[in-house]
Specification:
Layout: E1 4-11, E2 15-19, E3 28-34, H1 36-52, H2 55-61, H3 66-90, H4 93-105
Antiparallel strand pairs: 1-2, 1-3
Helix pairs in contact: 1-3
C-alpha cells in the first residue's frame, strides 16, 4: 500500500486531529507517512485519546472517588504514550528528530 503524508495536529487544549494538509501555524503538527491501515490505526487512537480526555466531567460524576480518577488518568497517559509511539514510528525524519529532542530535554 502506498503511504501518504498526514499531519497529527494538536488543537487548543488536547483536541487532536489527523488531517491531510498542514494548517494553522499556532498548533503543534507532526508529519507522518501512513498507508490506509496505519491511518485507520492513528484515527482510532486519536479518537480514544480525545474521548478520554474529559477528566473535568469526572469531577461532577464522582467528585470524591480519587482512586477511580487516578485510574482514569493512568489510562489516559497510557493512550497518549501509545499515540506518541505510533506518531514516532510513522513520523517523517523531521518528526522523529523533533520527538527525540523533546525526549532528550526531559
Amino acid at each position: 500500500m502506498a503511504k501518504k503524508l498526514f499531519y497529527v495536529a494538536w488543537h487548543g487544549g488536547s483536541y487532536i486531529r489527523l488531517q491531510p494538509v498542514k494548517t494553522d501555524t499556532r498548533t503543534v503538527q507532526y508529519e507522518v507517512e501512513a498507508d490506509e491501515q496505519e491511518k485507520q490505526q492513528l484515527e482510532q487512537l486519536i479518537a480514544q485519546v480525545n474521548k478520554n480526555d474529559v477528566i473535568q466531567e469526572h469531577i461532577f460524576v464522582r467528585p470524591f472517588d480519587e482512586y477511580q480518577d487516578d485510574m482514569d488518568k493512568n489510562e489516559f497517559q497510557d493512550e497518549v504514550r501509545e499515540l506518541f509511539q505510533l506518531i514516532y514510528e510513522l513520523g517523517t525524519e523531521k518528526t522523529r528528530d523533533y520527538l527525540k529532542n523533546l525526549d532528550d530535554a526531559n
